[in-house]
Write a structure and sequence with these properties.
Elements: E1 5-7, E2 10-12, E3 19-24, H1 31-34, E4 37-41, E5 53-57, E6 70-73, E7 85-89, E8 93-98, E9 106-108, H2 130-142, E10 149-153, H3 162-174, E11 179-183, H4 192-201, E12 206-211, H5 217-224, H6 229-242, E13 246-252, H7 261-271, E14 277-281, H8 288-291, H9 293-296, H10 304-316, E15 321-324, E16 348-349, E17 366-367, H11 368-373
Helix pairs in contact: 2-3, 3-4, 7-10
């Protein structure tokens, strides 16, 4: 598991404000570009004057004049590379915002939310965190135009209203060829005027990932801890598809949802057949999940047959269904064609029981939080084909 944020060992910079910077190891770029970049001094890169900022590791700190703006980092940030984007500041901390060699870059734009999900991995906060949106907007200007995909998440990004629409326009302007996946509870799109404003941006590469946890409105509302959320979410989905916007439905499977999984699949297939895809997802052991573990945890081996039946329903209706955040040894063989190795690289690990498994490279493994907290007692390595 990578460390994406942490304390800087030593820092010197202009002012106390947070600074967002793109990294480079190219000491030969024009002076005008140097003034916009942070020089990453690794792999034999030597100091040369003219850069906005310098990043160096503690073991090589003597190679840098301490009079220039700089950050001295521990080796846990040794993964930083050319064209990565970082933020420094805020009590001498560094955050890795974008990694050029990763396909799992996601921008957290707020921690505020109007749902309070039982299994939320990013528990909502009420403090003003507009700086997260501002930081993301600045970072989007710095990342390579060749970036294939990025994510936008919260909290609930649509709480920004018109500023959320502006964010989508900003993404279209700066990264027109980049696929964008936005996680949203979908409730804001129950307002047709807001949905029209979103659709008017006409960003063909954006898909909204919207959760639906049950075909029973009261069960869905219980899981998200918000009365009326189911009705708003379904109206939002209908409005989006009426305006030909791309939508993925996301179902997190746990003790509160697994028994109704097949009924939910039938409900979606009969009423929301026109969505672009459905993702059936395993539980992440973070945030509220740990506080509500007795209400949420079920060993995936116990619902593998319900998972197979749900996948079969979607297939029969010709729908695109994907299975995320599961281990290959805990699903039935018939689910494998829909299986995706999905867990973000920076929080992906494997259990000790996975050693020697000949299918390890195909398997998504675990969230690091699951390895440390709780996972299935039925994990077994594949030892032969």
């Amino acid at each position: 598991m990578l460390t994406l944020s942490g304390k800087v060992i030593n820092i010197k910079k202009d002012g106390n404000e947070r600074q967002v910077m793109s990294l480079t190891t190219n000491i030969n770029m024009p002076n005008a570009l140097k003034q916009q970049k942070a020089l990453l001094m690794k792999g034999g890169v030597e100091y040369i004057e003219g850069f906005k900022h310098y990043l160096i590791y503690e073991s090589n700190k003597n190679k840098l004049p301490m009079s220039v703006n700089h950050s001295i980092l521990s080796d846990e940030f040794s993964y930083l590379e050319d064209e990565d984007v970082i933020a420094i500041g805020g009590k001498d901390r560094i955050r890795s915002i974008y990694r050029s060699k990763s396909n799992h870059n996601t921008f957290l734009v707020t921690e505020q939310c109007n749902n309070y999900c039982l299994m939320c991995s990013q528990p909502p906060k009420t403090a003003d965190d507009r700086w997260l949106l501002d930081e993301s907007i600045e970072a989007i200007r710095l990342i390579p135009r060749s970036t294939e995909t990025i994510g936008i998440t919260g909290g609930e990004p649509t709480l920004y209203g018109k500023d959320f629409i502006a964010l989508i326009q900003h993404l279209k302007n700066w990264l027109p060829e980049t696929a964008v996946h936005v996680l949203s509870n979908g409730r804001a799109f129950s307002d047709i005027e807001f949905t029209k404003a979103y659709a008017d941006v006409d960003h063909k590469g954006v898909m909204l990932g919207i959760p639906v946890y049950s075909s029973d409105a009261s069960r869905h509302d219980y899981v998200v801890q918000a009365t009326g959320a189911f009705d708003e979410t379904i109206r939002g989905i209908l409005n989006l598809k009426k305006l030909k916007q791309r939508v993925e439905l996301r179902v997190v499977i746990h003790k509160q949802t697994y028994e109704g999984l097949v009924d939910l699949a039938e409900y979606i297939a009969r009423n929301l057949l026109f969505v672009d895809q459905v993702a059936l997802m395993g539980l992440e052991m973070m945030g509220f999940t740990r506080a509500n573990i007795d209400s949420l945890w079920i060993d995936p081996i116990e619902y593998k047959d319900q998972l197979s039946k749900a996948v079969r329903v979607f297939r029969n209706y010709g729908m695109n269904v994907l299975v995320y955040n599961h281990q290959l040894c805990l699903i039935n063989k018939d689910v494998e064609p829909n299986y995706v190795k999905s867990i973000s690289d920076w929080k992906n690990e494997y259990a000790a029981e996975c050693e020697g498994c000949i299918r390890k490279s195909e398997c998504g493994g675990f969230f690091a939080s699951g390895i440390k907290y709780r996972y299935s007692s039925y994990i077994r390595p594949f030892l032969e084909i």
